[in-house]
Amino acid sequence: MTLAADPNSEQYCPRLGHVVTLAYCVREGIDRPCRLVFRCWEGRLPIREHLLTLYKESEIEMIDAPASKLSSILDIIARAQGTSEEPDAGSGT
Questions:
Q1: Is 27 in contact with 63 (CB distance < 8 Å)?
Q2: Which residues pair with 9 in a beta bridge?
Q3: Mean pLDDT across the stretch 27-40?
């Protein structure tokens, strides 16, 4: 028999630096769980099973495989280059 996941269960959050509830962790990103939800809750309760009641398997897999820091940095650079080039395009110099 597996313990049910109580949304009011509390756990220390390493990202925020204080205690939060499971309900917060599974909706931290409004439409998705915190990227650390497995690290923080696994072993305390059946987190994967609980998430399956709220999300599709494909959405949960995205949590398991977060983007690498390098790809995030490259994305930020690309966006910054795109915005910095726009004002110069109309300067006529």
A1: no
A2: none
A3: 85
Cα-based torsion angle of the residue sequence 44, 46, 51, 54 in order, rounded to the nearest 10 degrees: -110
Q: What is the pTM of this model?
A: 0.60
H-helix segments, the chain: 22-26, 37-41, 47-52, 57-64, 69-89
Given a cut of 80, whether residue 11 has pLDDT beyond it is yes
How long is the chain? Answer: 93
- Per-residue tokens: 38: 């497995």
Q: Cα 59 vs. chain centroid, distance in angstroms? A: 11
pLDDT (tens digit per residue) in 66-84: 566 777 788 788 888 877 6
In this structure, are residues 10 and 21 in contact, taking their beta carbons and an 8 Å threshold? yes
22 by Cβ neighbours in 10 Å (0-12 / 13-18 / 19+) ranks as buried
